[in-house]
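Now for one specimen:
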Amino acid sequence: MKRKIIEIKSDLCDGCGLCTTACAEGALALDEENKAVLVKEIFCDGMGACLDVCPTGALKIVEREGDSYDAGAAYKHVLETRGKAAAKHVHGIEGQNIHGHPGAAGQKRMPLMGGCPGSAACAIPGESGEGEGRTVSGASELRQWPIQLHLVSPYAPYFKGSDLLIAADCTAFALGSFHPDLLKSKKLVIACPKLDETEGYIEKLAELIKHNDLRSLTVAIMTVPCCSGLYRIVEQAVELSGIKIEIQKRVIPIDGKLAS
């Protein structure tokens, strides 16, 4: 059938990988030459969500003969490659029961509080700005986007030969000097081992480690027990990758004082 579908001009593609994360259906990927390619026609919904993020104009929507968009197949593909949280955003699954997706059948009630000791409420003594004065307004050390593990491409060119920081979500809020003390000169991936759908995290990190010849690998976690799960995920990813690299561990208490 004739329909709208993405077209890629390989000569204009610079391999940034932004389109691969902008496409909720996982229709785009980077090949071995760091060029965007269409994974399968049935994964492309033809809506063009990827167009605005392409910095070189390598993408456009055309109308041509092609296989129809298959929301069910796209959902299964994203579920297998990115996990449940990402699969919920696939276009066309609303109100359906596709491969176990609950659709509009009902919403899960959010618990009033978590069940682990690390979620117990407590006040942290100290005054605003107290300490070594390492926080600087506007001095961001973030040098890439996206940063959430569900969204990053393990083949994004900015990971090549980089010093990689894998940080638990809460660390940037607990540690006032997160940018100068931890993030500076590093590329960043963030995740939460307790609240994220972590299915596929080990495999994705293993791909990132395997293909990017990392200079160093640092994991920053909180002292709360549930956060140690992120360190275990990274350990398993390193083992799966087959790459020998030391994992530098940084543990941050809830009062924000950096520990080793």
The CA atoms of residues 6 and 61 lie 5 Å apart.
